[in-house]
Amino acid sequence: MNRFIWIGLGAILGANARYLVGVWAGSRFGADFPYGTLLVNITGSLLLGFLVTLSAGRLQLSPELRLFLAVGFFGSYTTFSSFAVESIFLFQDGGLGRGIFNILGNNLIGLMGALLGVYLARALG
């Protein structure tokens, strides 16, 4: 039962972090493109890649902390479900280019972020 509490606590923080990043990105860059979703997917991929790689080697995380961070926090912080819906809306409302840019930006840059996280974690030791 405790594992559900750890996941839930992480999810509360991750969802609120996602919200705050979205609000910030919307006020900073405008609301005509889902910049907040793009930003949380890139940063979430980077940080989760970093955390998972580091915890597989030299960083010892308790099972509770791993559930809290990897499943709870990053599970609710990243937004691929929103990404799918927003991409469809961009195709419908903004044309082919904006939809393709959203898909490529989230996927390619997100993958590069995860790769960078793995690289940075390995560079530490």
TrEMBL record:
InterPro entries: FluC (IPR003691). It catalyses: fluoride(in) = fluoride(out). It is a multi-pass membrane protein. It is found in: Cell membrane. The keyword Hydrolase does not apply. Its main location: membrane. One of its GO terms (molecular function) is metal ion binding. Na(+) is not transported, but it plays an essential structural role and its presence is essential for fluoride channel function. Na(+) binds at residues 75, 78. The chain crosses the membrane at residues 33-55, 67-91, 103-121. The keyword rRNA-binding does not apply. PANTHER family: FLUORIDE EXPORT PROTEIN 1-RELATED (PTHR28259:SF1). Belongs to the fluoride channel Fluc/FEX (TC 1.A.43) family. This is Fluoride-specific ion channel FluC. It comes from Litorilinea aerophila.
